[in-house]
Design brief:
The protein is mostly helical and about 90 residues long. The protein is built from four helices and no strands. The protein is elongated and about 55 Å long.
Length: about 90
């Protein structure tokens, strides 16, 4: 089961990272964009590390408060939930 979860997290973070890059590329070319809701949703479903890396590497959405503060808060919440689950599973 752990391998499935790790595989999922790896995949969703890679997808999220490139989704930020694609949106930045499209923004520079005045093309159809990825919605902010979709970018945030990918963070919520496990891609928060990929989102943070995408923001850093592509310099994208770094000034939007809901991304600047929201994505790190999502990551903290996800790490907290995993830590609690691990703690309660081991007791």
């Amino acid at each position: 089961m752990a391998y499935i979860i790790l595989g999922y997290l790896a995949a969703i973070n890679v997808i999220t990272f490139f989704l930020y890059g694609i949106d930045k590329w499209k923004a520079k070319r005045n093309k159809w964009r990825v919605s902010e809701a979709r970018l945030m949703w990918f963070s919520v479903v496990g891609g928060s590390v990929g989102a943070l890396l995408g923001m850093k590497v592509w310099h994208h959405k770094t000034m939007h408060k809901k991304f600047k503060y929201g994505v790190p808060l999502i990551l903290v919440a996800q790490v907290t939930l995993v830590a609690l689950a691990w703690y309660y599973r081991s007791t």
